[in-house]
């Protein structure tokens, strides 16, 4: 009985060992096949990198700001008696824009002027009596004070009437009227916006590491997109101010340029593209923007090269290369380091690539690579 049981255990052990050996060979064979497996190549487009000379301009996004811009408001409360302007018109400094009702103040002025006249007559009379020794010096001083008080009262009422006459504080273009005839307005209520459009400011920000290249007096070129079918507005001005502090949130420095705007094409609040002309040139490698793989840890491109697979076969693959970027121009972006002229760079399909991936090049349809593209009508 014991011999039969031992034989059965030995037979079971031999059987399990044989099954394990077979499975081990199968797993090892599968791992070898996986190690030699090469994924199918990804279809991409490429371009041969070329070195170009780009002007050393510093590009930024700017906002148009009026040199003088206010919302003309009522200084005192009252009822709008006259409106002497039309929305959107050009006005000169000192032009009367609106008049509030001053009938009560006019009546008060007439009474105050009469009181002032009486105080003046009394003062003249008391001066003669004092010289004759009829009245005391105190009575004469009291008459002088009443005369001065009367003059001050008249001046106060005239100032109130003047404050109810709303004038343009400077020459400029009016906005849309915000009051109506007969409307009661409180003190500080808006009447109409007023903007001075010539000259005009353009404010933009530059990175803190570029501030040293921007100097007061430097030339600035500003471009603003026109309406549909209209040409782009381009104006040239000068840098007139560089902020003394760096924004802690963006690490950028505010720069202000002043431009002549005789036709009023630039209006406050407009979005513009500003370029600070630095007067020198840089050698760069210009690539389509679609060739750049943007990432938080660094921007990179994929360079096509001949590579060897684990089994020793040669194939066309890509190598990821980190780059330093410069300015942009149309569909192109400047690469200042990381790519050499003559290298073949992937221009589309970079999002699906990895270092060492096999590629298949098909350049029948290329991505946009125009330094000065013109948008098509949709």
Report on this model:
The longest helix has 34 residues, at 2-35. The protein is α+β, with helices and mostly antiparallel strands. It has helices spanning 2-35, 103-131, 137-163, and strands at residues 42-48, 51-73, 78-83, 90-91, 96-100, 165-167, 172-174, 184-185, 190-207, 219-224, 233-242, 252-259, 271-288, 300-308, 314-322, 324-329, 332-337, 344-348, 359-361. The protein has 4 domains: 42-54 and 282-361, conserved putative lor/sdh protein from methanococcus maripaludis s2 fold (Beta Barrel), CATH 2.40.420; 60-66 and 196-280, Elongation Factor Tu (Ef-tu), domain 3, CATH 2.40.30; 76-100 and 165-188, RNA polymerase II/Efflux pump adaptor protein, barrel-sandwich hybrid domain (OB fold (Dihydrolipoamide Acetyltransferase, E2P), Beta Barrel), CATH 2.40.50.100; 102-163, Helix hairpin bin (Helix Hairpins, Orthogonal Bundle), CATH 1.10.287.470. The mean pLDDT is 81. Strands 2-9-12-11-10-13 form a 6-stranded antiparallel β-barrel. A 4-stranded antiparallel β-sheet has the order 6-5-3-8. The protein has a 3-stranded mixed β-sheet with strand order 18-1-19, with no helix packed on it. It is elongated and about 160 Å long. A hairpin with an 8-residue loop joins strand 10 and strand 11.
Write the layout of secondary structure elements.
Layout: H1 2-35, E1 42-48, E2 51-73, E3 78-83, E4 90-91, E5 96-100, H2 103-131, H3 137-163, E6 165-167, E7 172-174, E8 184-185, E9 190-207, E10 219-224, E11 233-242, E12 252-259, E13 271-288, E14 300-308, E15 314-322, E16 324-329, E17 332-337, E18 344-348, E19 359-361
Helix pairs in contact: 2-3
């Amino acid at each position: 009985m014991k011999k039969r049981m031992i034989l059965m255990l030995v037979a079971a052990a031999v059987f399990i060992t044989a099954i394990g050996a077979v499975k081990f060979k199968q797993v090892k064979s599968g791992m070898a096949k996986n190690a030699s497996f090469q994924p199918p190549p990804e279809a991409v487009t490429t371009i041969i990198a070329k070195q170009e000379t780009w002007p050393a301009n510093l590009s930024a996004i700017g906002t148009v700001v009026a040199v003088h811009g206010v919302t003309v408001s009522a200084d005192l409360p009252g009822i709008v008696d006259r409106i002497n302007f039309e929305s959107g018109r050009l006005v000169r400094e000192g032009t009367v824009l609106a008049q509030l009702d001053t009938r009560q103040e006019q009546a008060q002025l007439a009474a105050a002027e009469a009181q002032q006249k009486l105080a003046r007559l009394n003062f003249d009379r008391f001066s003669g009596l004092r010289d004759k020794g009829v009245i005391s010096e105190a009575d004469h001083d009291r008459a002088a004070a009443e005369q001065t008080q009367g003059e001050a009262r008249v001046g106060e009422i005239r100032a109130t009437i003047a404050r109810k006459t709303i004038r343009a504080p400077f020459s400029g273009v009016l906005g849309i009227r915000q009051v109506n005839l007969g409307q009661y307005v409180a003190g500080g209520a808006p009447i109409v916006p007023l903007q001075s459009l010539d000259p005009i400011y353009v404010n933009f920000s530059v990175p803190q590491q570029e501030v040293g290249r921007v100097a007061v007096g430097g030339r600035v070129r500003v471009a603003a997109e026109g309406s549909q079918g209209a040409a782009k507005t381009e104006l040239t001005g000068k840098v007139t101010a560089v902020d003394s502090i760096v924004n802690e949130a963006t690490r950028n420095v505010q720069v202000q340029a002043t431009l002549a705007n005789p036709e009023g094409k630039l209006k406050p609040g407009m979005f513009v593209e500003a370029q600070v002309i630095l007067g020198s040139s840089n050698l760069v490698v210009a690539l389509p923007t679609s060739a750049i793989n943007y990432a938080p840890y660094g921007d990179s491109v994929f360079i096509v090269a001949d590579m060897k697979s684990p089994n020793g076969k040669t194939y066309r693959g890509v190598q990821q290369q980190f780059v330093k970027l410069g300015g942009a121009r149309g569909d192109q972006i400047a690469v200042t380091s990381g790519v050499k002229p003559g290298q073949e760079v992937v221009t589309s399909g970079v999002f699906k690539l990895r270092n060492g991936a096999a590629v298949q090049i098909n350049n029948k349809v290329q991505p946009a690579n125009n330094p000065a593209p013109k948008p098509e009508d949709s």
